């Protein structure tokens, strides 16, 4: 989480952690409706709607009519939103590399073993992959 926050601080323009998290969820889905996004964020629809209003005003999200139901509005990433997430991803990878490079080979191997065991246990419990990413 510290790496996430540190990486988020360096992207331009600035977005809040909840906004960044919403963009990551929308990007993972390609297109998602507001209710599903609110559910994934653990938020209520009115708060999520205002968050999306700000992201749309900043040019990071687009709202489109659903093909299946014209009354339903779908959220999808804009070109600028994808660009922002690519920048965030590069920053996060650089931060993670810096931390891993500072670790001894033995510590990196221990980390890998621990993460592998964690993933195996989570998979055995039936947790979906998107919760483990």
From TrEMBL:
Gene3D superfamilies: Winged helix-like DNA-binding domain superfamily/Winged helix DNA-binding domain (1.10.10.10). Residues 1-120 form the HTH marR-type domain. One of its GO terms (molecular function) is DNA-binding transcription factor activity. InterPro entries: HTH_MarR-typ, MarR/SlyA-like, WH-like_DNA-bd_sf, WH_DNA-bd_sf. PROSITE patterns: HTH_MARR_2 (PS50995). One of its GO terms (biological process) is response to stress. PANTHER family: HTH-TYPE TRANSCRIPTIONAL REPRESSOR YETL, TRANSCRIPTIONAL REGULATOR, MARR FAMILY. This is MarR family transcriptional regulator. It comes from Saccharopolyspora elongata.
